[in-house]
C-alpha cells in the first residue's frame, strides 16, 4: 500500500465509497466515472510523492512548443497512466 498523506487517503476512501454506492444503485456509468477519479487521485498522489522520478520519464507530458514538463495538476488521466506504465 502506498504511504499517502492522511488528507489524500481520506479523499480517495470517499471516492471509493461513492463508487460502491453507485454500483449498489446500479448506476454503472457513474461508478466508472468515480473509479476514474479514484485512479486519477491515486496516480497524482504517487507523482506528487515522487516528482523527480515522474518528471524524468520520456512519457512525461510536455508543455506545447517546449521541452518543459507540465505541472502535475495539468496532466490528464491518460498522461498519468502513460507515465505510470512506462515506470513499470
Show the helix and strand layout.
Blueprint: H1 6-24, H2 28-49, H3 51-56, H4 77-87
Helix pairs in contact: 1-2, 2-4
Description of the structure:
This protein has 88 residues and is an all-alpha fold. 66% of the residues lie in helices and 0% in strands. Helix 1 (6-24) runs antiparallel to helix 2 (28-49) and helix 2 (28-49) packs across helix 4 (77-87). The radius of gyration is 15 Å and the shape is elongated. The two termini are 16 Å apart. The mean pLDDT is 89.
Radius of gyration: 15 Å
Which structural class should the secondary elements be placed in? mainly alpha
Proportion of residues in β-strands: under 5%
Spans where pLDDT lies below 50 across 5 or more residues: none
Give a count of the beta strands, DSSP E runs of length 2 or more.
0
Q: Which oligomerization state do the chains in this entry correspond to?
A: single chain
Tell me the overall shape: elongated
Task: Characterize this entry briefly.
The protein is mainly α and 88 residues long.
Kindly list the characteristics that best describe this protein.
mainly alpha, 4 helices, 66% helix
Amino acid at each position: 500500500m502506498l504511504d499517502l498523506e492522511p488528507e489524500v487517503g481520506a479523499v480517495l476512501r470517499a471516492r471509493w465509497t461513492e463508487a460502491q454506492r453507485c454500483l449498489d444503485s446500479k448506476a454503472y456509468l457513474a461508478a466508472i466515472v468515480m473509479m476514474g477519479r479514484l485512479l486519477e487521485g491515486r496516480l497524482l498522489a504517487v507523482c506528487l510523492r515522487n516528482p523527480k522520478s515522474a518528471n524524468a520519464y520520456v512519457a512525461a507530458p510536455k508543455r506545447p512548443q517546449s521541452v518543459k514538463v507540465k505541472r502535475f495538476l495539468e496532466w490528464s488521466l491518460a498522461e498519468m497512466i502513460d507515465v505510470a506504465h512506462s515506470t513499470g
